[in-house]
Amino acid sequence: MPAVLRAYEDPDIQQWHVRTMSKHEAEAWVSSWLFDHVGLHRLELAHSVLNEASCRVANKAGYAYEGTKREQALHQDGWHDMHQHGRLRTDPLGAGVGRRRRPQ
Fold first, then answer.
1. 74, 95 Cβ separation under 8 angstroms
2. How far apart are CA 47 and CA 67, in angstroms?
3. CA separation (Å) from 55 to 1, 9, 10, 15, 20?
4. CATH number of 2-88
5. CA triplet 73, 76, 78: central angle to 5 degrees?
6. Residue ranges of domains in the chain
7. Which of 37, 69, 82, 101 has the largest CB neighbor count within 10 A?
C-alpha cells in the first residue's frame, strides 16, 4: 500500500483527479504510472464474460486478451466465467497493437 499512498502525492495524479478522462484513457494512464513509477513488469485484470464494456475498455487500454477462467468469481447471480487480460511493460502503446482479441 505505501506506493499507492505515495501516488496521491504525485502532482500528475492530483491533476488527473480534476481532469475528465474516458475509462480506457484513465486505465492506460494508471497502467503507465504503475510501470514507470512503481516499477511493475506485468499487470493483469479480469472481468465477467457478461461485461462486454469492460472487455472493450481493457482492449482499448492495451491489455491483451489471454483467455477465460471458468467459474472464477462468485457474483450475486452465481458463478461467472472471467476473461483474463494482461499488459507487459514492454508491450507497445496503443489499442490493439500486437494484441490477441477475445473470441466472438
1. no
2. 11
3. 27, 31, 29, 27, 21
4. 3.40.630.30
5. 55
6. 2-88
7. 82
pLDDT in tens, the chain (104 residues): 455 556 656 666 656 555 556 666 777 778 888 999 899 999 999 999 999 988 988 888 889 999 999 999 999 999 999 999 999 999 886 654 444 555 55
Calculate the alpha carbon distances from 46 to 9, 24, 25, 26, 70 in Å.
28, 15, 18, 17, 12
Place of cell 472493450: 56
22-42 CB burial, b ≥16 within 10 A, e <16: eebeebbbbbebbbeeeeeee
Strand partners, 4: none
